Amino acid sequence: MAGGREIVSFLAERQNLEQFRKKNWQGTFEEYLDLVAQNPAITRNAFQRCYDMILSYGVDTYEVSREKKVHYRFFDDPLDNGKDAIFGLEDSQVQLVNALKSAAHGYGIEKRVLLLHGPVGSSKSTMARLLKKGLERYSALDEGAVYSLGWIDPANPSDSSAIHWCPMNEEPLHLFPEEFRPDVVAQFQEASALADYPLSISGELCPFCRFMYMESLNRHGGDWSKVVQDVHVRRVLLSEKDRIGIGTFQPKDEKNQDSTELTGDINYRKIAEYGTDSDPRAFNFDGEFNVANRGIIEFIEVLKLDVAFLYDLLGASQEHKVKPKKFAQTDIDEVILGHTNEPEYRRLQNNEFMEALRDRTVKIDVPYVTRLSNEVKIYEKDYNNEKVKGKHIAPHTIEMAAMWAVLTRLEEPKNASLTLLQKLKLYDGKSLPGFTEENIKELKSQTKREGMLGISPRYVQDKISNALVAHPDATSINPFMVLNELESGLGNHSLITSEEQRDHYRQLLEVVKEEYENIVKNEVQRAIAADEDAMARLCANYIDNVKAYTQRERVKNKFTGQYEEPDDRLMRSIEEKIDIPDSRKDDFRREIMNYIGALSIDGKKFDYKTNERLYKALQLKLFEDQKDSIKLTSLVSSVIDQETQEKIDVVKQRLIRDHGYDDESATDVLSYVASIFARGDVTG
Question: What is the pTM assigned to this prediction?
Answer without folding.
Answer: 0.84
